[in-house]
Amino acid sequence: MSSVISLTDISRVFVMGDQQFAALKGISFDVTQGEFVAIMGASGSGKSTCMNVLGCLDIPTSGRYLLDGVVVGGMSTNQLADIRNRKLGFVFQGFNLLARTPAVENVELPLIYSGVPPKERRSRALAALEMVGLSGKEKNHPSQLSGGQQQRVAIARALVNSPAVILADEPTGNLDSSTSEEIMTLFTTLNRQGITIIMVTHEPDVAAYAGRRITFKDGLIVSDTH
Length: 226
Fold this sequence. Notes:
- By secondary structure, the protein is α/β, with parallel strands linked by helices.
- The protein has one domain (3-225): P-loop containing nucleotide triphosphate hydrolases (Rossmann fold, 3-Layer(aba) Sandwich).
- 34% of the residues lie in helices and 30% in strands.
- The chain has 7 helices and 10 strands.
- The strands form 2 sheets. It has a 6-stranded mixed beta sheet with strand order 6-7-8-3-9-10. Strands 2-1-4-5 form a 4-stranded antiparallel beta sheet, covered by helices on one side.
- A hairpin with a 2-residue loop joins β4 (62-67) and β5 (70-71).
- The protein is globular and about 50 Å long.
- The two termini are 16 Å apart.
């Protein structure tokens, strides 16, 4: 299987005044298509910085990042925004839905940025909502949905552009345990359909759903288990 993500000797150094802080210290790993990877580690371990690099939200200080065969280094802000929209789907702890917008229009957002015509946008958004078990809820606003349903809308939005990778940052952080199980079961189902998922979590029971667990400590990878 081809690598959809390839990080080689990635470091990220933050400069604060005359102080330097290395959040990542030369990490390397590949993720092949169809993997479900959990990134774990304590607060300050480097896992969030790694996720920001993977999401093209932050640029490494050194090293090489290949996303679906494209070298990310040296891209302009606009190019990074474009590759983010085409290659990546994001799921956040706080759902990040537009409150005054129905579910189907929340899901359509990435397609608007991609210039997809309205009719096709709508059909793809409805299909994504069906994939996450929300048929019949497309006109509901976020306030009319439970936390679990809101996260399903967010997952549908992440899926709608058929991204190379879904990046999920603490996707169950705002959910109770039974809703967390529902969401993780959905991720498992999507992964069985061939969707590549990389998830940051600090909860071992959530990480257990992934087929591979990469653990960070002090900016380094300390274990990588399949």
